[in-house]
Amino acid sequence: MPKKQQNMKNMTFRIGLILLTALIIMASCKQSNQSDNQKDEYAATAITEGANGVQQMSVYDYTDTIRTNGRTYVYTIHREPAPDLPTVQDDMGYEFADNVYSLRVTRNGSAIITRTFTKADFAAYLSPTIKRGGILDGLIYDASQQGLHFAACVSLPQSDMSEPFILNFDEKGGMSIERDVRPEIEEEEEEDGV
């Protein structure tokens, strides 16, 4: 398979993985037991038209607990449209606001990570197409690895074209960013006979 097709397949998978993870998290919470911080799936992915006619994702907050490497952490992810960042335009001429994500991770009540992310944090890794027309549209905890790893995604709005990243944090809050080039889960499941 040509590299470009494989990259597209990986990008499509990463968006699906982010959405699937959000759906699983939301489905596991009973409606009567949901806290104010846990929004339904629609709120997590909804794009609405803002007062200025620009399409934008809704404000979103999510808090959860991580138990990894014998320690317990609490993390909060906050997303909101960023009117001070440049907008992007899709092929149909619709204008979209970019997003800003905030991540806070605490251990024993003390903050070890307090970071804000925009598309600019990933600019050095982005293809020209995604750099020009993409928005930061995903940030979730990556439970597939031990430690403090979060998955982020920069995508063309309302499309399956995206570029996924892994944010690796150490226990003191140091961070590195890398492209997420892991093989798709579907392929791994087929190999495992699942």
Describe the protein.
This protein is α+β, with helices and mostly antiparallel strands. It has a single domain, classed as Protein of unknown function DUF4738 (Lipocalin, Beta Barrel), CATH 2.40.128.510. Helices cover 23% and strands 39% of the residues. The chain contains four helices and twelve strands. The strands form four sheets. Strands 3-4-7-8 form a four-stranded antiparallel sheet, with no helix packed on it. Strands 9-10-11-12 form a four-stranded antiparallel sheet. It starts with a helix and ends with a helix.
Care to give the gist of this entry?
The chain is α+β, with helices and mostly antiparallel strands. Helix content is 23%, strand content 39%.
How much helix is in the residues? Answer: 10-25%
In CATH, the homologous superfamily goes by the name Protein of unknown function DUF4738
β content, as a range?
35-45%
Distance between the ends: 23 Å
Integer count of domains: 1
Shape: globular
CATH topology: Lipocalin
Q: Using the 3D structure, state the CATH architecture.
A: Beta Barrel
Biggest sheet, spatial arrangement of strands: 3-4-7-8
Unreliable stretches (pLDDT < 50, length at least 5) are: 19-42, 186-194
Structural class: alpha+beta
What is the CATH top level name? Mainly Beta
The biggest beta sheet is recorded as:
4 strands, antiparallel
Strand tally, please? Answer: 12
Question: What's the alpha carbon Rg, rounded to whole Å?
Answer: 17 Å
Please tally the helical runs, counting DSSP H or I stretches of 4 or more residues: 4
Following the backbone from N to C, one meets helices and strands in this order, namely: HHEEEEEEEEHEEEEH
Mean pLDDT over all positions: 80
